[in-house]
Design a protein that fits this description.
- The chain has 200 residues and is an alpha+beta fold.
- The chain has one domain: General secretion pathway protein M, EpsM (Gyrase A, domain 2, 2-Layer Sandwich), CATH 3.30.1360.
- 64% of the residues lie in helices and 22% in strands.
- It has four helices and four strands.
- Strands 1-2-4-3 form a four-stranded antiparallel β-sheet, with helices on one face.
- The chain is rod-shaped and about 190 Å long.
- The N and C termini lie far apart (157 Å).
- 8% of the residues are buried.
Amino acid sequence: MIKINLLRPEKKEVAAGGAAAVSFTEEAKPSKLSIPAIVGALALTLVGIGLMYFLQSGELAKQKRIFEERTLRKAELEKVLKELEQIELTKKELDNKIKIIGELKLKQKDAVLMMDKMSRALPEWVWLTNLSFTGGAVNITGKALSNNLIADLINNLQNSSYFANVQISSTSRRKESGIDIFEFRITCQFLPRAETKKAV
């Protein structure tokens, strides 16, 4: 059996052209899937930004807490440093006072020792009217019945290991109750460590 196609060829072409046109029109339309993709991308971006903001906020809060703690710690340490400075000043003052007291005690001992050695160096008929002792320097004012007795005093002081640079500053004679009295002034240096030097 033979089948004959009664359709015209141009109709086929038109139909084919129409199909082509339809497919061309369909290809020209934008895809409906692109909008959800954009929305999804924006949502992911917003989520990422929110996550970064949250993380940065947490880190910022942590750093702020550390800063506040360190600021408090610094204030405490500054307070401790001020207290230490005050203690150091008090210690220096006490050390100075102790040093002064020690020097005074030493000078007191030196004065007592000087008076003892001076009294041993005095010959008979020689007496002192004034004696000053400052920083090791000794100024002696006294009276004697003769110049020889004054010379004996000077020799005794020079022969003692406790006195150095013995010099007579002045001497004068005058009468008291009809007796010749010789007044004198002597300067010298007292050496309180003579015993220690001898021992060495």
